[in-house]
Amino acid sequence: QLLSDLFTNYYQGIVPYCSGQDKGVEVGLGIAIRSLIDVDEPTQIIDINVWVRMSWTDCHLVWNASDYDGINELVVPYDKIWVPDVTLYDNNQDGDQGLLPGLTDFRPKIKSDGSIHYNFPTVLHSLCTIDSTYFPFDTQTCPLKFGSWSYDGFHVDVKNVSASADTSSFKKNTEWELVSVEAVHHELFYSCCEAPFPDVTFYLTISRRYLSFVVNIIVPCFMIVCLALIGFLLPVEAGEKVGLEITVLLALAVYAQVVSDQLPPSSNLPYMGLFFACALLITMFSLIMAVFVINLHHRGELGYPVPKVIRCIVFNGLAKIVFFDVEEENEEEAVSTSQHSVSKQETLSSIG
């Protein structure tokens, strides 16, 4: 009998207006973050499992519970009543008629005073601009903007029920840490219309857990760069100076490719990319210097003198940087040569 009395002249296709009502239907919106499924950085899409909580009042669905054996609430199918067409503006997945996925699959609850509560789970696929400047020590903020797609603020006014989303049942993610989810109500005006268009935006702030990246990428790369610098101390006679530098260069290139595959294309160079660029430059410089030193070494063995330009650069420039006393070495060499000449003359005179 109650269902017959409520829905005999009820039409679920229009916004419920009643006499004396001076404004549209106010829809309270809240979400509970259940889990962070995935953050696809190259495509800049975030997947989140949430529980959507909507509440509003339908003045056409009011009854006296005492007249119906104390029944003060009903759970009805979705298509029996009017439900606001709240949608995620930056949704990346086609839902039912463009609405939130799962909106039409569950049942709202109606109370005798006309208040309606509709809670349902869904998976949001939202666009999220990824800022990779500080990767892997970065913090991302993804706005989740909800609002009515068909109605303006004079008909449906969407407002947040709390200052933040519910995170009490959040399942921890292995790569990202949930920092906060603030809820902010906006009213926007567009050039096409005079009416405002309200929305509720949840600013999802997540921080990357960087320990695994430090252990698996940063520390090995730092050690590889140190190996490139240690190559300067390797004697020429070892014959592995060039081979070592080439191996280090290839290892850095592989690590750089692994990191670049995880980042979105961006005009801003991440500091991690700058680190790899500097490391590759250092390794390349070390490789060039190793080839140069080997060339000089073998030229000396063949009796070719060191070019004057190189002698000038080494003795006048590099010697001061490494605190090498050129004059003292020259004096010792001159004394040694003089002693050798005297000894040679004494030997010749004794023979004569």
From TrEMBL:
<feature type="transmembrane region" description="Helical">
    <location>
        <begin position="271"/>
        <end position="294"/>
    </location>
</feature>
<keyword id="KW-0472">Membrane</keyword>
<feature type="transmembrane region" description="Helical">
    <location>
        <begin position="242"/>
        <end position="259"/>
    </location>
</feature>
<feature type="domain" description="Neurotransmitter-gated ion-channel ligand-binding">
    <location>
        <begin position="1"/>
        <end position="210"/>
    </location>
</feature>
<keyword id="KW-0813">Transport</keyword>
<feature type="domain" description="Neurotransmitter-gated ion-channel transmembrane">
    <location>
        <begin position="217"/>
        <end position="346"/>
    </location>
</feature>
<dbReference type="InterPro" id="IPR038050">
    <property type="entry name" value="Neuro_actylchol_rec"/>
</dbReference>
<dbReference type="InterPro" id="IPR036734">
    <property type="entry name" value="Neur_chan_lig-bd_sf"/>
</dbReference>
<keyword id="KW-0675">Receptor</keyword>
<dbReference type="InterPro" id="IPR006201">
    <property type="entry name" value="Neur_channel"/>
</dbReference>
<keyword id="KW-0407">Ion channel</keyword>
<dbReference type="GO" id="GO:0004888">
    <property type="term" value="F:transmembrane signaling receptor activity"/>
</dbReference>
<feature type="transmembrane region" description="Helical">
    <location>
        <begin position="210"/>
        <end position="235"/>
    </location>
</feature>
<keyword id="KW-1071">Ligand-gated ion channel</keyword>
<dbReference type="Pfam" id="PF02932">
    <property type="entry name" value="Neur_chan_memb"/>
</dbReference>
<keyword id="KW-1015">Disulfide bond</keyword>
<dbReference type="Pfam" id="PF02931">
    <property type="entry name" value="Neur_chan_LBD"/>
</dbReference>
<protein>
    <recommendedName>
        <fullName>Neurotransmitter-gated ion-channel ligand-binding domain-containing protein</fullName>
    </recommendedName>
</protein>
<keyword id="KW-0325">Glycoprotein</keyword>
<keyword id="KW-0812">Transmembrane</keyword>
<dbReference type="InterPro" id="IPR006202">
    <property type="entry name" value="Neur_chan_lig-bd"/>
</dbReference>
<keyword id="KW-1133">Transmembrane helix</keyword>
<dbReference type="GO" id="GO:0022848">
    <property type="term" value="F:acetylcholine-gated monoatomic cation-selective channel activity"/>
</dbReference>
<dbReference type="InterPro" id="IPR002394">
    <property type="entry name" value="Nicotinic_acetylcholine_rcpt"/>
</dbReference>
<keyword id="KW-1003">Cell membrane</keyword>
<dbReference type="GO" id="GO:0045211">
    <property type="term" value="C:postsynaptic membrane"/>
</dbReference>
<dbReference type="InterPro" id="IPR006029">
    <property type="entry name" value="Neurotrans-gated_channel_TM"/>
</dbReference>
<dbReference type="InterPro" id="IPR036719">
    <property type="entry name" value="Neuro-gated_channel_TM_sf"/>
</dbReference>
<keyword id="KW-0406">Ion transport</keyword>
<keyword id="KW-0770">Synapse</keyword>
